[in-house]
Amino acid sequence: MTFSLEQAGRQAWQWLEAASAFSETRDIPREGVTRRCATREHRELLEALTEWMESLGMAVRRDNAANLIGRHASATPGARTLLIGSHQDTVPNGGKYDGMMGVILPLALVKYLRENAISLPFHIDVVAFSDEEGTRFSSTLLGSKVLAGTFDPEMLEATDGQGVTLESALEAFGCDPARIPEDRYRPEEVIAFLEAHIEQGPQLEQASLPVGVVSAITGIERHQITIHGMAGHAGTVPMALRRDALVGAAEVIRHLNALCKETEDLVGVVGKIENAPNGVNVIPQTTTLSIELRSPRDAVRRRAREQLLEQIGASLEALNLTFDQVQTYEQSAVQCSPWLTATLEEAVQDSGIDPRVLFSGAGHDGLAMAELCDIGMLFVRCRGGVSHHPSEAIEPEDLTAAVEVLAHACQRLARGQSPA
Ligand SMILES: [Zn+2]
User: Fold this and answer.
1) Strands, E, within 209-285: which ranges?
2) What's the 143 CA to ligand 1 centre distance in angstroms?
3) Most buried of the four, 173, 197, 243, 324, by CB within 10 Å?
4) How many separate helices (H) and strands (E) can be counted in the chain?
5) Ligand 1 centroid vs 197 CA: distance in angstroms?
């Protein structure tokens, strides 16, 4: 009696539905899923995952950062490990699939391999990272940094909205934060890290493709720009003499929007703006706005930054305005390993699907895992490109496609496809 890919897809769907009940909002389904690190919901989810993993014969352990790891062991002596996983946590009022889908799909894969007696020359460790979104402690990529050995112990002092430190939350969860350094993987024992994640964008849906292969995870930089003008009476100061900071802000937005539209692989936004004195009949004196630029190619992003700042400087000077600019954040892009991207593309083709390669405009655990090993990512189509929202949705049959691609990828890795 074999277990089909369709059955594996349906199993994944059922597990995802069951997992979505472990939420602060469990009684109000329209409010989506809220599951933060080291909470009751997290504990309940890990108990369910443990049960499902053990039913597949996996050896399950929790580490000291509240990551859950289930091993589907290989019989091959000296086998190395393929890590596959994603994060268990959500944003407040998020969906059922961002993160969780990447924990459940490898479990469905393990069930498929096991039921069909497909043996592999490597272990598969399925990981449910404790905290990627950073919703509770503003501590993004906590779980993956621990496995990669790049966790900064100072992070343990971070507090949640109630003043509870990460350290005490982990202790209450049964972890020993002092032993976090022991939880890292050693690079030599790991083949790679694979993550399946919903796309969080509309490209696959527009192309009518169930899955796509990720080439890179975007780099991000943010700046704060403060424009200084001169407040005055909105009725009496002649237009030609005004130094209106908000008019300057409009120029900043116009330049950023135009530059991003005309530059390939670059997106950007002015997401936040504060205007003072912000009165209906007062010329704005000071306007502060945020600028964010993202690109999978750091050189593109840096060139765009220089160009943008030059354009902003010229426009504001022409308006008789001055400005301060400070960079508040920078995260370099991380390339998925070309050999793994190629392996996943072939696995997509093996599954009878046109391989589409796209970059991720959102951050993922792979950013941290790339410090440990080669990384590869598979995107699964999501309805309307919507994520971080209760209405986040996927097509059930896309889970079948994703399990099939992962199974083909494992078989290609088993045949010795490895770094060129
Ligand atoms: Zn995610």
Assistant:
1) 211-217, 219-228, 267-269, 273-276
2) 13
3) 197
4) 11, 14
5) 7
* E strand map for 311-374: 322-331, 334-335, 357-360
Query: 103: CA distance to ligand 1 center in Å?
Result: 11
DSSP 207: T
CA distance 294 to 178: 36
Distance 257 CA to ligand 1 centre (A): 26
Separation of CA 284 and ligand 1 centre (Å): 39
According to DSSP, the residues that pair with 213 across neighbouring strands are: 357, 378
CATH fit for domain 5-217+333-414, picks 3.40.630.10, 3.40.1190.20, 3.30.1330.10, 3.20.20.70 = 3.40.630.10
Distances (CA, A) of 379 to 109, 134, 198, 401: 16, 21, 5, 11
Q: What pTM did the predictor assign?
A: 0.90
Residue 253's φ and ψ, nearest 5 degrees, are: -65, -40
Give how far Cα 139 sits from Cα of 37, 159, 213, 372, Å.
10, 10, 27, 19
Q: What are phi and psi of 296, to 5 degrees?
A: -75, -10
Name the burial class of residue 322, with classes exposed (0-12), middle (13-18) and buried (19+) by CB atoms within 10 angstroms of its CB.
middle
Residue 114 Cα to ligand 1 middle (Å): 27
Cα 3 to middle of ligand 1, angstroms: 29
Q: pLDDT of 173-232, one tens digit each?
A: 999 999 999 999 999 999 999 999 999 999 999 999 999 999 999 999 999 999 999 999
> Roughly what angle, to the nearest 10 degrees, separates helices 298-318 and 245-262?
150
Neighbour tally for 42: CB within 10 Å: 23
Run of H or E residues at 84: strand 81-87
Q: What per-residue confidence (pLDDT) applies to 62? A: 98
219-331 placed in CATH 3.30.70.260 = no
Contact 74, 119 (CB under 8 A): yes
Q: What one-character-per-residue DSSP string does 21-41 give?
A: TSSTTTT-GGG-B---TTSHH
Q: What is the pLDDT of residues 265-316, one digit of tens each?
A: 999 999 999 999 999 999 999 999 999 999 999 999 999 999 999 999 999 9
What are the structural domain ranges in the chain? 5-217+333-414, 219-331
| C-alpha 364 – ligand 1 centre gap (Å) | 6
